[in-house]
Amino acid sequence: MKSDNNIKERYCPRLVDDRLDFYLSTFGAVCVEGPKWCGKTWTCTMHSKSRFLVGHPAGNFANRQLARLDVNQALRGECPHLIDEWQDVPAIWDAVRYSVDESSDCGRYILTGSATPKTKGVLHSGTGRIARLSMHPMSLQESGESACVVSLKDVCCGKDIGVHSVPEPSLESLVEYVMRGGWPGGKGKSLAQALLIPRDYIRNVAEMDVQKLDDIDRDPVKVMKCLRSLARNESTTASTKTIREDIAEMDDTSLSINTVTEYIAAFSRLFLLRDTKPFSPFARSPIRIKQQAKRRFCDPSLAAALLGFSPRTLMRDVRTFGLLFESLALRDLEIYAEAMEGELYHYQDYSGDDFDAVIQTPDNGWSAFEVKLDASQVDEAAKSLVKIAEKFKHNPPTSLVVVVGKSSLAYRREEDGVYVLPLTALKA
Asked: Rounded to whole angstroms, how far apart are CA atoms 235 and 323?
C-alpha cells in the first residue's frame, strides 16, 4: 500500500467526494461499495484519519487473521477510521453497527466493499447507522476527457444552457474512451497499457473472484462463457433464458437456468454488472410498462475486452460500437445522476416505445434520454423523444435530451425544446 502522502499527491478528485463528506456529517458510518479497481480505497483514504486494510497481504494477511480472531481490532483508530474490504470478515459489519449505536458521533467509520457477502452474519441491516454510497469507474468528467461546459443537473431542471462549442471527438477518441474505460490505474498510461486492465480484470473475475466470493467452486470456463454472452447482450433487457440460449448457440455449451441465474447473481454481488431498473412515471398508468431491468457491465471496457475487440475492429463494427457507446453514456449519466442524489432508470412499454435512459431527480421530476453515436441521428432521436413524451400529459418530463458522441455543439433546439448534448460536454 502506498503511503498517505503519495496518495494525496497523486489523487484525482472524484464526484463521490462531496457526497462522502456530507454522509459522514450525517451518519455514524458510511459504506462505499463498487467494483474492484475503481478507486474506493484511495478516495476513502483521503477522507479518513486512520485505516485498517483487511486484505493487505503483509504478514501472510495478518490483518484478516487478526480481525477474525478479534473483530474489535479492526475498529481501532482515529475517526473517521477506514476499514477496507470489510466483506472479507463479515462480522465487521455488526461490530461497526454496535459501535455506532454506542455513540451519537457522526463520521466514525468508513467501510469499503467490492463484493456483497451472500450472508453477512448481520444481525441488523445498519439502517440509520451505516449509509451506503455507490462508487463507479471514472466518468469522462473525472478522467479529464470532458470539456465540462454543461451541467446535467441544470439540464434535468430544465434550465437554459445557451450554446456551447466543444472540440468534436474523433471516432478514434470515442473508441478509446470505450476500450480504455474509467479505471484510475489506466490514467496516464498508453492505450496499449490501458487495454491490459479490463482484460486482466475479467481474468481475475473468472479465475479468482467468483471462487473467493462464497467458497463455491465455479468452473472458470463456464464463467467466461456466461460473461461473453452478457457482453453480447450489453445494455439490453435480455432475460436469463435468452442468455442461456445464447451460450448454447454461440459457445456450444449447455448450462442450466439455475446455473446461469447463479452466475449472474455472483457477478452482481461483485458489482461487475449494473441493473438499470424500469421506470414508471406514475402509479396509476394505463400504459403497460415492461418490468425487465436493462443490464450492463459497470464499465464498457469490460464488454469490449470480453468480445475480443481491438480499437480497429471495434470501429469497423458500427452496431456494436453504438451499443458500447450507449453503455459508456449510461455509465456517466448514472454517475452524474447520483452526484445530485438522482437515480437512473430506463423505459420500455409494450407498444414498442422506449427511452434509453430516464433520470429521476430528488423532487420526483424526470428527464428522458436517447443516446446516439453521431449528430446525424439527432433529428430522428428528438422526434422519438417528443412522440413518446406525449403519453405522459399528466406527468410530463422536465426535459428531453439527446446525448451524442461525435458532435461539437451543446444547445437546446428551438423547434421542440430538446437538448442536444455531446457526452464530452457534460459534467455533473
From this structure: 7
State the DSSP code for 209. I
Residue 39 near residue 187 (C-beta atoms within 8 A): no
Owning domain of residue 313: 140-427
Please give the Cα distance from 328 to 175 (Å, whole number).
Answer: 10
pLDDT of residue 118: 67
Number of domains in the chain: 2
163: left (phi over 0), alpha (psi -120 to 50) or beta: beta
The set of residues, in sequence order, having a beta carbon less than 8 Å from that of 201 and lying 6+ positions away, is 36, 37, 183, 302, 305
Q: How far apart are CA 331 and CA 55, in angstroms?
A: 28
In a shared domain, residues 323 and 396: yes
The residue among 41, 43, 42 whose CA lies nearest residue 54 is 41
* The pLDDT of residue 284: 55
C-alpha cell at 21: 463528506
Minimal CA–CA distance to 107: which of 171, 177, 47, 24? 24
Report the chain (428 residues): mean pLDDT per 10 consecutive residues: 64 96 97 97 96 88 93 96 95 94 94 81 63 97 98 98 97 98 96 97 95 87 97 96 96 94 96 94 64 94 98 96 97 98 95 95 96 97 97 93 98 98 98
CA atoms within 13 A on the CB side of 258: 0
Query: Which residue type, as a one-letter code, is found at position 82?
Result: L
User: 338 is written with which cell numbers?
Assistant: 447520483
> Would you state the cell numbers that stand for residue 75, as one nine-digit string?
475498529
Q: Helix (H, G, I), strand (E, B), or coil: what is residue 324?
A: helix
Residue 234 and residue 327 in contact, taking contact as beta carbons nearer than 8 Å: yes
pLDDT value at position 1?
A: 46
For the record, the C-alpha cell of 301 comes out as 471496457
Place of cell 451543446: 410
Could you tell me if 218 and 106 lie in one domain? no
127 DSSP 8-state letter:
T
Residues whose CB is less than 8 angstroms from the CB of residue 403 and which lie 6 or more positions away in sequence, other chains included: 329, 333, 369, 370, 371, 372, 421, 422, 423, 426
**57 in the same domain as 14:** yes
